[in-house]
Design brief:
The protein has 277 residues and is an alpha+beta fold. The chain folds into two domains: 84 residues, Phenylalanyl-tRNA Synthetase, Chain B, domain 1 (2-Layer Sandwich); 168 residues, tt1808, chain A. The chain contains nine helices and nine strands.
C-alpha cells in the first residue's frame, strides 16, 4: 500500500495552489482537504500537525458553512463536518514577529500590569471597556486624543440607512476623518461569549470606516481580525484568553500598535496609487 504523503508536502502543494490564485485564497470542502493527507482519522495530534504546517506557511483559516456569513476561525478546525467549507488565505500580517532580536525591542508592560489585568473581575460591559480595553490600548501606543468612544457610524442595512455606535474607534490624532481611522474595538461583557453577530458588527464598522483591523473582546477572550473588504472573508489573526495576554503580547503589539497600523495604511495607499486605483 502506498505510503501517505507527509503533512509538509501536502501543505506545500496547497500553498503553491493558493499563490497561483489572484486573491491568494482557496475554498475547499472539508472532505476534499482532509483526503489530501490520507488520514484514516483526524486525531488531535494530526490536526495540530496540519495547523502548525499551515501557520509556518502563513496560511490563515476560516471555517464555516457560509463563508463571510457565520464563518468562524480555526478553533473548530478538525471537528467540522465533511460538507463544511475551509477558506485558506495566504496572509502575512504586517509586524509579525520574525526573530528573537526583534522581540527584545517591543515595549512590554511590567509583570505587575499583566498580573493586574489577569486578576480583574469585570461586572459589566462598561467595566470591560474602561478597565480592560482602555488600558490595553494605552499600552499599544494610543493616546487620549486618538480615542473616540461611542463613535457614530452611518451605514446601510439593505436599502435602509441606520445610525450605529462603535464602542471604540482609534484615530491617528484628533482628526475624525476616514483617512485617519486606524482600528475598531468592539467590547461585550464577560458573561457574553463572543458570537459571530458580534464579529459581524465589528466587521461592518470596519467596512464603513475603512479600518484595516478590528478587535472583538468580552474581557476574557480577545480576537484580532484583518479586514479584507466586503467580498473576501476576513482573517482572524489571533485569538487568546486574557490570562494568556502576557504570552501573546509580542505578536499583538507588532500587529496592532498605533505606528504599525499607520505604516500599514501608508503601504496600502502607495499600492493603490501605483496600481491606479
Amino acid at each position: 500500500m502506498a505510503k501517505p504523503p507527509s503533512v509538509s508536502d501536502v501543505v506545500e502543494d496547497i500553498f503553491q495552489s493558493i499563490l497561483a490564485t489572484p486573491k491568494q485564497q482557496r475554498k475547499l470542502r472539508s472532505s476534499t482537504f482532509w483526503d489530501k493527507f490520507g488520514f484514516e482519522r483526524r486525531t488531535k495530534d494530526r490536526v495540530e500537525q496540519v495547523k502548525e504546517a499551515l501557520r509556518q506557511r502563513n496560511i490563515m483559516l476560516n471555517v464555516g458553512l457560509n463563508v463571510g456569513e457565520g464563518a468562524f476561525g480555526d478553533s473548530a478546525f478538525g471537528t467540522e463536518s465533511k460538507h463544511e467549507w475551509l477558506v485558506l488565505s495566504h496572509v502575512i500580517p504586517p509586524g509579525v514577529l520574525k526573530t528573537i532580536e526583534e522581540t527584545r525591542d517591543i515595549p512590554t508592560p511590567p509583570d505587575s500590569w499583566f498580573d493586574r489585568m489577569a486578576r480583574r473581575v469585570y461586572e459589566s460591559e462598561r467595566e470591560v471597556e474602561y478597565y480592560f480595553v482602555v488600558p490595553l490600548l494605552e499600552q499599544l501606543g494610543y493616546e487620549e486624543e486618538d480615542l473616540a468612544v461611542g463613535f457614530p457610524v452611518q451605514m446601510f442595512e439593505g436599502t435602509r440607512r441606520v445610525n450605529k455606535e462603535a464602542d471604540f474607534v482609534l484615530f491617528n490624532g484628533a482628526n475624525r476623518t476616514i483617512d485617519d481611522v486606524l482600528l475598531i474595538v468592539e467590547a461585550k461583557k464577560t458573561e457574553r461569549i463572543v458570537t459571530e453577530d458580534t464579529v459581524g458588527q465589528a466587521k461592518a464598522y470596519a467596512m464603513w470606516l475603512s479600518t484595516p483591523y478590528y478587535i472583538v473582546s468580552n474581557g476574557d477572550e480577545v480576537r484580532v481580525y484583518l479586514f479584507r473588504g466586503a467580498i473576501q472573508p476576513d482573517v482572524m489573526l489571533m485569538t487568546f484568553k486574557r490570562s494568556d495576554l502576557r504570552q501573546n503580547w509580542g505578536t499583538l503589539y507588532q500587529t496592532v500598535n498605533k505606528q504599525a497600523i499607520i505604516e500599514h495604511k501608508e503601504k496600502l495607499s502607495k499600492m493603490r496609487a501605483d496600481s491606479g486605483v
